[in-house]
Amino acid sequence: AQAGHPVQDFVCCAHWCLQPHSQILCEEMDFIASTILEVAKCDPSASFWGMLGVSSAIVFANTGAAYGTAKSGVGISCMGVMRPDMVMRSII
């Protein structure tokens, strides 16, 4: 980093600070980090249930998309059998 540059690369209070010798900013960062670490005590199974919810949402979304695509394909195929002149209109 250059002298007088607004962003200095150095470690202060085990955190990256934006200005040199910014003790107040470092103390605030320490307080915020300790507060987050104190609040973040969750049940160990919480991450399991969270990931289960995410994966089930992905499964159901893809299942719904596949079902809709299949129903649309069946409809277009039926239109091609019954009324071949209307196939392009049913696609649009």
| Quantity of strands, as a count | 2
Tertiary shape = elongated
What percent strand?
A: under 5%
Question: Could you give the order of strands across the largest sheet?
Answer: 1-2
SSE succession: EEHHH
Q: What would you report as the Rg, rounded to the nearest angstrom?
A: 29 Å
Mean pLDDT: 76
Biggest sheet details: 2 strands, antiparallel
Helix/strand/pairing class, anyone? mainly alpha
The level of helicity is 55-70%
Helical segment count: 3
Runs in which pLDDT lies below 50 for 5 or more consecutive residues are: 4-17
Distance between the termini: 58 Å
How would you describe what is shown here?
The chain is mostly helical and 92 residues long. A two-stranded antiparallel sheet has the order 1-2. The relative contact order is 0.06. Helix content is 64%, strand content 4%. It is elongated, with a radius of gyration of 29 Å. A hairpin with a 2-residue loop joins β1 (11-12) and β2 (15-16).
